[in-house]
Q: What sequence folds into this?
C-alpha cells in the first residue's frame, strides 16, 4: 500500500517534522531540491522527507531558501577556496616540469 503524499510549506512543519528535516538534510539542501511549476505557473523549490506513514514534499519559501542558502554558501565557499588552492598548487608543480621538458626536447642544448 502506498503512503499518502503531502505537499507542505516549510513554515508549517511541525516540530517533529522539523527535526526529521534536520536529520534528513544535516549539511543543507544544495543539490537535493526539486523544482516544479505550481498551478499558477510559478516555479516552486521543494525537498522530500519521509515518515513511516507519509511522504512529504516540503516547499522551501523565499525566506527559508535565504537561510538555507547562506549556510550552504558558506560550505560551498570553503569547498571552492580549497579546490582553487589545490588547482594552484597543481599548476605550480607543473610549471617546473614543463621547463625541464623544454630543455630535454632541444637536443642542441647541454644540461
A:
Amino acid at each position: 500500500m502506498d503512503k499518502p503524499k503531502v505537499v507542505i510549506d516549510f513554515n508549517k512543519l511541525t516540530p517533529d517534522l522539523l527535526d526529521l528535516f534536520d536529520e534528513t538534510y544535516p549539511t543543507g539542501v544544495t543539490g537535493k531540491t526539486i523544482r516544479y511549476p505550481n498551478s499558477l505557473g510559478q516555479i516552486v523549490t521543494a525537498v522530500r522527507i519521509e515518515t513511516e506513514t507519509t511522504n512529504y514534499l516540503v516547499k522551501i519559501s523565499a525566506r527559508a531558501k535565504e537561510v538555507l542558502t547562506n549556510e550552504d554558501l558558506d560550505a560551498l565557499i570553503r569547498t571552492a577556496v580549497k579546490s582553487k588552492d589545490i588547482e594552484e598548487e597543481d599548476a605550480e608543480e607543473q610549471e617546473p616540469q614543463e621547463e625541464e621538458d623544454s630543455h630535454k626536447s632541444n637536443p642542441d642544448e647541454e644540461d
User: Anything to note?
Assistant: Residues 16 and 72 are 23 Å apart (CA to CA). The first strand starts at residue 5 and ends at 9.
